[in-house]
Automatic annotation (TrEMBL):
Domain WDHD1 first WD40: 23-305
Protein name per Swiss-Prot or TrEMBL: WD repeat and HMG-box DNA-binding protein 1
Residues of the WDHD1/CFT4 helical bundle domain: 717-820
Amino acid composition bias (Polar residues), ranges on this chain: 953-974
UniProt WD repeat ranges: 58-99, 142-183, 234-275
Region (Disordered): 338-435, 911-986
Composition bias type Acidic residues, residue spans: 376-386
GO MF entries: chromatin binding
Basic and acidic residues composition-biased segments: 353-363, 403-412, 911-936
Subcellular location: Nucleus
Length: 986
């Protein structure tokens, strides 16, 4: 064994000290080495010619990088990570290009096909995604593995794909059908959850052999077509093989094992020809495309180059590469020797040059003479069964006219077509993609579903309602138009299809469920435009077309309005009189963020009450859009975030659900609808994003909740309940105000407000308890100000008193007193006219009024309190939290009884005062009468001396204040006034 002479350089630091899986690869010219580590989120692009130069570091992943792949045209680098994403970069610049796909679990393997038009990605999810690199679409998902998929490889002839998993199973897939043609169980080692080593598979360069690590510390070769075991390479490895790599010409193979050895094999002779021993296990190797060298990287993130890996006395590993002319001799399969820049874009669209679209058999002579990557692409796409769209070839400029302008043109040619994010296509809420031979949904909502299935050139459509007792029974119909979208409500259904050639124009059809007239079904045909989205409401049908026209029809088919929209439509939804339309406001941002705008039209009044931008999670697209059962506008994006529109803050979107908070990455949520507190959806096992129509999917209910930050109280559920109740109360307040403005009865809505206010106060009290236990007293003071009821404030005072917080209890008391003072100042009782009799009675009335004021202060829950969140609507009734079960009617009767008793007390007091007053005045009148009688009795008879006897009598009797004297006129006036007053009182 040779003395180890390979110098290793540190590329990535090992954070755990144990080691992790690391990746390494060469570019096609042998000028750069790319390394990555599953314990490091960065990718390093090293200069292979001058290793001392610092590497170019690319940091776009949030977690460790587990897989690398370089496109055949050497212009695009793909990386997969533990953060579930697959990203593309320009190579060798390292500039971020796009997020081409995303998984729900970590990614373990990536591979480009020979033409670069397809990227295969797999990992801990149970499916392999075949991604069309031209437009980023997913061509197919291959499912069948039970363990994490750790190795994938395209057959060089573009017919098969091989994959291996962590439990030792190898599967061979046919790309045309997506079916498994061979399943080899238990032929590779079981790695379990230790992903520092991988089970990998590798095709020989001619595609005839598939190499797989064996169970006997060897490499086993399987036949391409029959998957039969042909032979194995077994030597001095004393532990299982963890990585293997074919030389470019397929004559040699390098293997690394858990025993920290690398062996170089002569495959034809089935024997090892050289080896090296290392301090740490080597996790990945790559042969240099030009020359005789092998790059390696170990478990600790150190990389190096083994020069002259094949002894110089033997044939070079890059000599006689299959499919290349002998003149080229560098293993460069796809490029013209005279071209400075490859003609294939980094978007892997494989644009050809000088191609005439002829399907000629592949030959070395033709490849050398034409240097046409387009020809190779055509051959591969034919073999790959037309999974990718073809692109028109571009003409190549003559070599003799290359100047600066041509160089600029070449630079533009190398700009990736897919570098710019693609605008989202139009979607129909509740519809699923077309699947050949399978039934699919044209519409699925809270009301029912519309399904279709193609049979012998036409389709069979069925309409079903979830509640069969209330919904009408609709017979199935035959579809001769090929409808792809539909919408449903209680009155009817609308269908539409896109254009399918000149003869099959786009058609819109409305079908009512019940009508008084015959032939009420109608349809419309569109020339030079096609329907992209449809919606239904009360008495209207809407269709949005490719010309950005919003066409509104009546239920009878009358064309009522045609509006021009600002951009291409994304989707539309209807609810009663309202129609909501989402359009593109501008092309997507370079960060792959869609710029969408929503508009809400009121069809009945012909107005547009709402308009604005539709928020989306960065990097996501809109996957569902519609109204809740209560009529609130809602949206759901591909990142699993649900948003609901609110009038608060001038019109904003509230995030009421986030799938990431549930921490179930193996599930996707296909939204059907929502109500005030629940989200209705169908669980789809990842990577499926939509359910099958048969069997009928089962609806699941998820609680709505805000994506709150982790609270220092540990009371996220209470905080979420508090915000949800506040939001509901605001909606109820708005409804009450609208109903009062319209003169409608609000008693039912008031009852709902009672319940919401009581629930809100209970939640606030629990939050106050949490704040006290967490020593957040300022927050507790803020919360007590939000309580709507006086008894709730008193309950908070009792709570903090029991928790032995006297300072906080004093503050709560001050808040309560301030409220009571405001209520006392604001509440007045009008004085009765009957209370103005005299001073004593007014004093008694004042005392009684004071008593009433005290009683009203004890019932502060019947008054309005200002709050920071407008928790108490103006003029609304209040209910005590201490008596949540008490009947409102009973409370009202008790209040009436108290008022009646108070009125009786007032009347009794008034009657007593009045009787006493009358008695006193009667006594005065009687006294006056007696005085008059006495005066008349003292007058003399006719003829008598008036002065004689009269004076004697007067001298003998006591003084009478009413006797006749010089003041007789004054006494008479006093008598008359008293008499008039008595009559008035009577």
């Amino acid at each position: 064994m040779k003395i180890r002479s390979i110098k290793l350089r540190e590329a990535h630091k090992c954070s755990n000290g144990v080691g992790s899986f690391c990746s390494v690869l060469w570019d096609k010219q042998g000028e750069h080495i790319v390394t990555a580590s599953s314990s490091d989120s960065s990718i390093c692009i090293h200069d292979a010619i001058l290793p001392a130069n610092p590497p170019k570091v690319v940091r776009h992943h949030r977690d460790g990088v587990t897989a690398l792949a370089l496109s055949p045209n050497n212009t695009c680098l793909a990386s997969g990570s533990i953060d579930h994403s697959v990203k593309l970069y320009k190579f060798p610049a390292g500039e971020f290009e796009t997020n081409i796909t995303r998984f729900t679990l970590p990614i373990r393997a990536l591979a480009f096909n020979r033409s670069g038009t397809m990227l295969a990605a797999a990992g801990d999810d149970d499916g392999i995604k075949l991604i069309n690199t031209i437009d980023g679409s997913i061509a197919r998902v291959l499912k069948g593995h039970r363990g994490s998929i750790t190795g994938i490889a395209f057959d060089p002839k573009s017919e098969y794909l091989a994959s291996a998993d962590s439990i030792g199973t190898v599967m061979i897939w046919e790309l045309q059908s997506g079916k498994t043609i061979h399943i080899l169980k238990g032929i590779a080692p079981v790695i379990g959850s230790d992903f520092s080593s991988m089970n990998i598979v590798s095709w020989s360069p001619d595609g005839e052999l598939l190499a797989v690590p064996g169970l006997k510390n060897d490499v086993v070769m399987y036949d391409r077509d029959t998957a039969e075991k042909l032979f194995s390479l077994r030597g001095d490895h004393v532990q299982p093989i963890c990585f293997l790599s074919w030389s470019p010409n397929g004559k040699y193979m390098a293997t690394s094992g858990l025993d920290r050895q690398i062996l170089i094999w002569d495959v034809d002779k089935k024997q090892d020809i050289d080896r090296q021993k290392f301090e740490n296990r080597v996790t990945c190797m790559a042969w240099k495309p030009i020359g005789n060298a092998l790059s390696i990287i170990d478990i600790m993130g150190k990389y190096g180059v083994w020069e002259s890996a094949v002894p110089s006395s033997m044939k070079s590993p890059t000599e006689d590469i299959p499919g290349l002319s002998s003149k080229n001799g560098h293993g460069l399969l796809f490029y013209d020797e005279e071209e400075e820049n490859p003609s294939v874009s980094g978007s892997l669209s494989d644009l050809g040059e000088d191609s005439h679209g002829e399907s000629e058999p592949f030959s070395r002579k033709r490849l050398h003479k034409q240097h046409s990557y387009r020809d190779d692409w055509e051959e591969d796409t034919n073999e790959e069964l037309e999974l990718f769209p073809k692109v028109e070839p571009r003409k190549k400029a003559p070599h003799g006219h290359r100047d600066r302008s041509d160089n600029k043109r070449n630079e533009l040619k190398n700009v990736p077509i897919s570098a710019g994010p693609k605008m989202q296509e139009a979607i129909q809420p509740g519809a699923t993609p077309q699947q050949p031979g399978k039934r699919r949904f044209l519409c699925y909502s809270m009301l029912g579903s519309i399904t279709t299935m193609e049979l012998d050139g036409y389709s069979h459509i069925e309409i079903d309602f979830h509640d069969t007792s209330s919904g009408p029974r609709v017979p199935a119909m035959t579809d001769y138009f090929g409808f792809t979208m539909a919408s449903l409500n209680e009155n009817g259904s609308v269908f539409a299809n896109p254009c399918k050639g000149e003869k099959n124009m786009s058609t819109l059809m409305y079908r009512p469920f019940s009508t008084w007239a015959n032939n009420s079904e109608w349809s419309m045909r569109f020339e030079e435009e096609e329907v992209r989205a449809v919606a239904l409401g009360t008495g209207w049908v809407a269709a949005i077309t490719s010309c950005n026209f919003l066409r509104i029809f009546t239920e009878g088919g009358l064309q009522r309005h045609i509006l021009s929209l600002d951009g291409p439509v994304v989707t539309a939804a209807g609810f009663k009189d309202e129609l909501a339309v989402v359009t593109h406001a501008s092309p997507p941002l370079p960060s792959n963020e869609q710029i969408l705008e929503f508009r809400v039209f009121n069809i009945r009044t012909g107005t547009q009450p709402r308009r604005g931008r539709l928020p989306l999670t960065p990097g996501s697209c809109l996957s569902w859009f519609g109204f809740s059962e209560e009529g609130h506008l809602s949206s759901f994006d591909s990142k699993g975030v649900l948003r609901v529109f609110t009038n608060q803050y001038g019109g904003s979107w509230l995030p009421l659900f986030s799938a990431s908070k549930l921490k179930k990455p193996e599930e996707n949520y296909w939204v059907v609808g929502l109500n005030t507190s629940k989200l209705f959806c169908v669980f789809c096992k990842s990577p499926d994003s939509f359910p099958e129509a048969i069997p009928k999917p089962i609806l699941s209910l998820l609680d709505l909740s805000f994506p709150l930050a982790s609270s220092d109280l540990g009371a996220e559920n209470l905080e979420n309940e508090f915000i949800m109740n506040s939001m509901h109360l605001h909606r109820i307040q708005s409804t009450i105000e609208e109903m009062e403005a319209a003169g409608e009865d609000t008693s039912l809505v008031d009852d709902e407000a009672f319940n919401t206010e009581a629930a809100l106060d209970r939640c606030i009290l629990r939050l106050i308890a949490s704040c006290c236990n967490g020593d957040k007293l300022v927050r507790a003071t803020e919360l007590v100000k939000l309580l709507a009821l006086e008894k709730s404030v008193k309950g908070a005072i009792k709570l903090v008193t029991a928790l032995k917080l006297p300072n906080l209890a004093e503050r709560f008391n001050a808040i309560l007193e301030e409220r009571i003072n405001k209520e006392t100042t604001g509440s007045t009782i009008p004085a009765s006219a009957e209370l103005k009799c005299d001073t004593s009675f007014n004093a008694h009335a004042a005392l009684t009024k004071s008593h009433v004021t005290v009683e009203s202060s004890k019932r502060l829950e019947s008054q309005d309190f200002p709050s920071l969140n407008l928790l108490a609507p103006s003029g609304s009734k209040k209910r005590s939290l201490e008596e949540p079960i008490k009947d409102v009617n009973v409370e009202t009767e008790n209040a009436k009884a108290r008022k009646l008793e108070m009125a009786r007390e007032f009347k009794s007091a008034f009657d007593m005062k009045k009787a006493k007053k009358l008695k006193d005045e009667k006594d005065k009148v009687d006294e006056v009468k007696d005085a008059r009688k006495l005066e008349n009795a003292n007058e003399p008879e006719d003829g008598q001396d008036k002065n004689g006897e009269a004076n004697k009598v007067t001298a003998q009797r006591p003084s009478n204040p009413f006797a006749k004297s010089s003041n007789n006129k004054q006494n008479a006036s006093l008598f008359d006034s008293l008499k008039k007053k008595v009559k008035a009182d009577r």
